């Protein structure tokens, strides 16, 4: 109803209600150019809920998704950030809990690639009362409408980053908008300019969604799984490392609730990535931390990584199930026993994981690790002669790069698979180091090195994942046979999967030399040199 | 997109009032609806308080230098838009004749790009037999023919069905209904009774001659909107439920 591109306004009136008195000066101003008349059946209460994934994929793609709830069913409305409609589809009542798969329709078609495999979570619900006034021209024709909206917003129960905000409510200031009638754009502009000149009326700088978040003390995109620690080149290395590790601990904590509720698979994925980054940081940068602390948490985070592995492995199998079965000659029905078996096993593993995450060991890691890191971060003392963040970045990044260059150069077509697996670990460490110290690097040089490295990582990843999955398929076949859960057709289909995996592994291996040369050859060496000349300059 | 056209060779038979009210009812049913006022007199445009003017006139629309889309105006009612009349439509025959190899299919061709936006289009056609009316008949899925209850009306209907039957390819479905009926006149009752019994294409609903319908030009709104409980509004609703497309099976 609100015309995209037309300005919206905030009425500086008592936020309790938009009564006739509050609107009187507005209507008087509009009466200079129009006859104003109340819309018959124009006012009403309506309820809208904005939705997004936990990591704000829609917001980051410049999209806004809301579900408008009516007495009978509702509508999903997808628009651009500026309000331009993109797609809509009818839905039956929207559940209060997150939704993993949208019903088929134009909105689903438009966003599924963007959000998969994440669930859509309710973010904010607004209950608003709208008062509509028609603006008529000399012929008595409606040429624009004034919509005065007064909303109360509530943070959704699954509020994402800050669970304490759930259920918080706030009143938004009354919001005025001029809705255009098709074919009368000039009249709507005229009405908007009359409003703009009015004292007590301010232009709305935020969309209703953003304003709702602000009123609730949140801001859009307040969760990201990337490192983005606040470090500077000159700060002591220990402080920088503590900041990095605290940021990673935040990510772990932010995802625990979603993992335990089993909302979607990416909560566990993000949690695991943060754990891996933490382990790499302790290993590569732990020298600047007290030795006992580093040693203790090296073991604790290894434990945490290990307890999350079985569930994640099964998630990966299940996520790949749809796309993979499409490529096979075997019918999807043949693979159904395998899928059912994976689902059962995952349920079992998930229970174990949940017990661990609710247990004392995990709680102790979270609390004590944070306390120790905060002490390091806030420690004051003589700062002279302590290494800086920049010097730590240069020395460790350079070291790991040289290690990769040497290790990779020794790999020949005859080398065992383990040598590539090992190189993959080093490459991952280099990637993490680059990400940790990203704020200290020149962005252009950073992008070049990461680009080279990513090419190699993709290849090594495809090589190892194919092998691991193939071995798992064999192990699953054994286990299913032992449980008498494997019809012959299913085993044959699993054989076909294993053959496909072997093929992609061979392809990745054939591509290795080219990709390695890009990172460690003269061009790549030049890129890393420029990168490492940067920090601290 | 389903296209309805109100047509009669004679003027003053309740064509425009039918188009205006049926289009309003279609929009009220939740269908995105467009009414194209093709009559240079602009009666439908007047009833919606919209100026009978199109930038560039009929020429720009027919030649395609302006799209229909850009000329459409929103009415005061949700889901109902109007493509206004323009005085230059009086020359539309000449404009259509001067176009391309298929002068009788031009209006159908102009409407095609709107298929994504509208569920129903109503064409309010000027009286007469002309290239415009022939275009309208080719574009329409349903030809709505208001008939005055006179003996001549049978002849009118025969002429029209005969003409449409001669079309190659797609032919519109002809749906006639009696309009401006005076229940007190015995002759009206007899004609209606006989023709409804004989001809399947004649609707069971008749639109009576009522001052409330004439009041539309004072209120400048569909009677279905300003007096929804009136006899007139009820008659249009009954007619719409006879002719509206059955909802698609889910």
Write the layout of secondary structure elements.
The complex is a heterodimer of chains A (537) and B (250).
Chain A: E1 8-11, H1 20-30, E2 35-38, E3 44-52, H2 57-60, E4 63-69, E5 74-80, E6 85-91, H3 106-115, E7 121-136, E8 142-155, E9 169-171, E10 175-180, H4 185-196, E11 201-203, H5 208-215, H6 237-261, H7 265-285, H8 291-319, H9 321-326, H10 332-358, H11 360-378, H12 389-409, H13 417-436, H14 443-482, H15 488-520, H16 522-533
Helix pairs in contact in A: 6-7, 6-11, 6-12, 7-8, 7-13, 8-10, 8-11, 10-15, 12-13, 13-14, 14-15, 14-16, 15-16
Chain B: E1 2-6, H1 15-28, E2 33-37, H2 43-47, H3 57-63, H4 68-71, E3 73-74, E4 80-83, H5 92-97, H6 106-111, E5 120-124, H7 131-139, E6 142-147, H8 151-165, E7 173-178, H9 186-198, H10 211-214, H11 216-219, H12 223-226, H13 231-243
Parallel strand pairs in B: 1-5, 1-6, 2-4, 2-5, 6-7
Antiparallel strand pairs in B: 3-4
Distance between the termini of chain A: 54 Å
Number of strands of chain A: 11
Alpha carbon gyration radius of chain B: 17 Å
Oligomer: heterodimer
* SSE pattern of chain B: EHEHHHEEHHEHEHEHHHHH
Supply the helix-strand structural class of chain A: alpha+beta
How many helices of chain B?
13
CATH superfamily of the largest domain in chain A: Hypothetical Protein Pfu-838710-001
Strand content of chain B: 5-15%
Instruction: Count the beta strands of chain B.
Output: 7
Please give the radius of gyration of chain A in angstroms.
29 Å
Taking all residues together, what is the mean pLDDT of chain B?
92
H/E topology pattern of chain A: EHEEHEEEHEEEEHEHHHHHHHHHHHH
Taking the alpha carbons of the first and last residues of chain B, their distance comes to: 18 Å
> Approximately how much beta-strand content do the residues of chain A carry?
5-15%
Most extensive contact: A-B, 9 and 11 residues
């Amino acid at each position: 109803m609100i015309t995209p591109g037309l300005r919206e306004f905030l009425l500086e009136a008592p936020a309790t209600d938009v009564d006739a008195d509050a609107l009187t000066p507005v209507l008087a101003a509009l009466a200079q150019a129009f006859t104003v008349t109340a819309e018959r059946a124009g006012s009403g209460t309506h309820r809208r809920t904005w939705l997004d994934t936990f990591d704000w994929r829609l917001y980051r793609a410049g999209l806004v998704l809301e579900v408008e709830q009516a007495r009978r069913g509702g509508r999903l409305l997808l628009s651009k950030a500026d309000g331009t409609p993109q797609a809509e589809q009818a839905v039956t009542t929207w559940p209060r809990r997150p939704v993993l798969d949208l019903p088929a329709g134009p909105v689903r078609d438009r966003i599924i690639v963007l959000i998969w495999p994440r669930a859509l979570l309710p973010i904010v619900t607004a209950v608003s009362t709208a008062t509509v006034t028609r603006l008529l021209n000399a012929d008595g024709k409606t040429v624009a409408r004034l919509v005065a909206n007064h909303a109360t917003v509530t943070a959704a129960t699954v509020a994402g980053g800050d669970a304490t905000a759930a259920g918080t409510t706030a009143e938004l200031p009354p919001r005025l908008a001029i809705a255009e009638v098709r074919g009368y754009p000039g009249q709507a502009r005229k009405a908007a300019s009359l409003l703009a000149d009015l004292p007590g009326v301010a232009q709305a700088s935020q969309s209703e969604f953003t304003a709702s978040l602000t009123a609730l003390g949140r801001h859009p995109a307040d969760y990201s799984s990337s490192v983005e620690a606040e470090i500077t080149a000159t700060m002591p290395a220990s402080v920088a490392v503590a900041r990095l590790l605290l940021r990673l601990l935040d990510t772990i904590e932010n995802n625990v609730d979603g993992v335990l509720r089993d909302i979607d698979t990416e909560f566990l994925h993000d949690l695991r990535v943060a754990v891996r980054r933490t382990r790499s940081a302790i290993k590569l940068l732990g020298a600047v931390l007290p030795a006992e602390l580093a040693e203790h948490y090296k073991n604790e985070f290894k434990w945490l990584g290990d307890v999350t592995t079985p569930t994640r492995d099964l998630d990966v199998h299940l996520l790949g199930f749809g796309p993979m079965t499409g490529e096979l000659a075997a019918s999807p029905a043949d693979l159904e026993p395998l899928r059912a078996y994976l689902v059962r096993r995952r349920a079992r593993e998930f229970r174990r994981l949940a017990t661990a995450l609710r247990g004392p060991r995990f709680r102790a890691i979270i609390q004590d690790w944070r306390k120790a890191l905060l002490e390091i971060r806030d420690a004051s003392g003589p700062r002279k002669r302590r290494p800086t963040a920049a010097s730590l970045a240069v020395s460790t990044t350079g070291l790991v790069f040289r290690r990769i260059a040497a290790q990779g150069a020794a790999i020949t077509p005859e080398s065992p698979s383990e040598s590539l697996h090992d190189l993959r670990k080093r490459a991952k460490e280099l990637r993490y180091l680059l990400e940790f110290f990203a704020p200290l690097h020149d962005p252009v040089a950073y992008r070049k090195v990461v680009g080279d490295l990513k090419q190699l990582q993709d290849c090594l990843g495809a090589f190892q994942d194919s092998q691991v999955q193939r071995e798992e398929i064999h192990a699953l076949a054994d286990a299913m046979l032992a449980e008498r859960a494997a019809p012959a057709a299913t085993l044959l289909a699993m054989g076909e999967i294993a053959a496909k995996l072997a093929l992609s592994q061979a392809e990745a291996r054939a591509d290795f030399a080219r990709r390695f040369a890009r990172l460690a050859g003269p061009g790549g060496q030049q890129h890393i040199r420029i990168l490492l000349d940067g920090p601290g300059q | 997109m389903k296209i309805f056209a109100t047509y009669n060779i004679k003027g003053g038979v309740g064509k425009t009032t039918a188009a205006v009210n049926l289009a309003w009812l279609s929009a009220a049913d939740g269908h995105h609806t467009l009414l194209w006022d093709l009559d240079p007199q602009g009666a439908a445009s007047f009833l919606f308080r919209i100026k009978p003017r199109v930038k560039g006139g009929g020429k720009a629309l027919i030649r395609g230098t302006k799209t229909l889309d850009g000329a459409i105006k929103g009415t005061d009612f949700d889901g109902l838009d109007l493509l206004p009349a323009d005085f230059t439509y009086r020359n539309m025959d000449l404009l259509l004749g001067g176009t391309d190899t298929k002068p009788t299919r031009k209006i159908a061709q102009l409407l095609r790009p709107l298929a994504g936006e509208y569920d129903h289009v109503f064409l309010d056609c000027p009286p007469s037999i002309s290239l415009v009316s022939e275009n309208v008949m080719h574009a329409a899925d349903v030809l709505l023919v208001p008939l005055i209850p006179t003996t001549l009306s049978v002849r009118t209907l025969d002429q029209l069905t005969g003409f449409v039957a001669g079309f190659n390819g797609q032919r519109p479905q002809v749906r006639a209904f009696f309009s401006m009926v005076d229940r007190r006149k015995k002759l009206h009752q007899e004609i209606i009774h006989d023709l409804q019994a004989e001809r399947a294409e004649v609707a069971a609903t008749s639109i009576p001659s009522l001052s409330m319908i004439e009041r539309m030009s004072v209120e400048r709104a569909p009677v279905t909107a300003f007096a929804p409980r009136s006899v007139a509004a009820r008659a249009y609703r009954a007619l719409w439920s006879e002719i509206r497309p059955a909802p698609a099976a889910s």
